[in-house]
Amino acid sequence: MAEMGKGVTAGKIASNVQKKLTRAQEKVLQKLGKADETKDEQFEQCVQNFNKQLFEGSKLQKDLRTYLASVKAMHEASKKLTECLQEVYEPEWPGRDETNKIAENNDLLWMDFHQKLVDQALLTMDTYLGQFPDIKSRIAKRGRKLVDYDSARHHYESLQTAKKKDEAKIAKPVSLLEKAAPQWCQGKLQAHLVAQTNLLRNQAEEELVKAQKVFEEMNIDLQEELPSLWNSRVGFYVNTFQSIAGLEENFHKEMSKLNQNLNDVLVNLEKEHGTSTYPVKAQPSDSSSAKANKTPSSPPDGTPVTSPETKAVNHEPEPSTLETPGGGIPKSPSQSTEAAAAGAEAAGKEAGAEAAKADTDSGSASSSLPAVVVETFPAAVNGTAESGAPSERADMPPGFLFKVQAMHDYAATDNDELQLKTGDVVLVIPFDNPEEQDEGWLMGVKESDWLQHKEFDQCRGVFPENFTERVQ
Known about the structure:
Blueprint: H1 2-32, H2 41-88, H3 96-130, H4 132-161, H5 163-171, H6 176-180, H7 183-272, H8 288-292, H9 310-314, H10 333-362, E1 380-381, E2 384-385, E3 402-406, E4 425-429, E5 441-446, H11 447-453, H12 456-459, E6 461-464, E7 468-470
Antiparallel strand pairs: 1-2, 3-4, 3-7, 4-5, 5-6
Helix pairs in contact: 1-4, 2-3, 2-7, 3-7, 4-7, 5-7
C-alpha cells in the first residue's frame, strides 16, 4: 500500500509538472504571436473593477485601524488628564466626589465608543474584505484553466491540420521497414498508423472537451459574482460611514454633558475661592486681519477696542457752548477768545507751580516716574493763533502728546507697526496727515529708541491703543 501511495504521489507530481510546462509553452507561443489567445473584454473589465475594489477596501481598513488607534490614544490621554485633576483636587474642596464620578464616566464613555467602533465598523470591514481572497484565487485559477483550454484547442487543431499529411504519408511508405516488408504486411502497417492517428485525435478531442468544461464552469460563476460584488460596495460604504458618524455624534453628546458638569463643579470652586484665582494672561491674537481694516484686536484681558480714553487720544475736543453760566448773553468772539487764552495761561501757571512744588518735595526722586508736561496753547484773536506753533519739550520728539505703557505683547504684522513688549513705554505723536489715523490706532516711538537713537522718522510706527495704558 505504501508503494502504491508513493506511486500515486509521484504520478500526480509528474502530471502537475507537465501541466506547468505545457502552460509555460502556450504562454510563450501566445506572446510570440504563434498561437491565438481567447479574450473576454467584459470579464477583463470585471477583474479591473475587482482589483480597484480590493485596493480601496484595504486602504479603508488600514485607515480605520489607524483611526481606532488614535481613539485609543485619546482615551489614554484623557484618562491621564482626569487623573491629574483628581490628584490636584484637594479633599476639602467642594465637588471632589463629583469630579471623581465625572472621571469614571469619562473613562467608561471612551471605552464604550472604542468597542462600538470595533463591533460596528472594523468587524464589518473585516467580513467585507474576507470574501476577496477566495475570489482572487478563483480568478487566478480561471486564468490557468483558460491557458489549458487554449493549449488543448491548439493541440486538437494541429492534429486536424496534419490529418491529410498523415494520410499521404501512410499511402506512400518511406521507411526501410515498410519498403522491406512483403506486400501483405504493408497493409497491416498502414492500418496500424491510421489507428494510432485516430487514437491521438480522439484523446486530443477529449482533453479539449474536458478543459473547455472546467473553464466555462468557473467562468460562468465569476461572471455572475464579480458584478454583484462590485455593486455591493456602495451599500457597504454607506453603512460603514453612517455607523461611524452616528457613534461619533452620540459620543460627543455624552462627552459634552460630562464637560458641562465638570465646568459647573469648577465654577462653584472658583466662587468659594475667588480671591485666590490665578490670572492667566494669554498672548494677544493675531491682528493681521484686523489690521487690514485698521481695527486692532482685543487685548488678552478683554478690554474693548473702544476705550473711554478714545476721545482724549484722538485729541478731538467736544464743541463747547458759548453760553455763560446762568443763561446770560454770550460774549463776543473776541471776548470769548481772550477769556479762553487767559484761562489757559492761568491753568498753565497753576500746573507749573504744582510741578515745581512736586519737584521740591520729591528731591532726587527716581527718573522713571512720569514727568508732568505742561502744554501751553497760544491765544487766538479772531480765530487765528498769535504764535506759529505750541511750545515743545526739547527732550521729546516733535509734536509729543503723551506717554503710554504696553500692557500686553504685540507682534507687528506690517512694516509701519511697532513691535511691543509688556512694559514698553511709547511716546505718542500726532499723524502727519490726521485723515490717515484709523480708529483705535496711535502713532508713536518707543521711548528707549528715542533716547538711544533720536531718529524720529526711522523709529516711529503705529500700534493698537487697546494694548496700552496711558501713563502721562
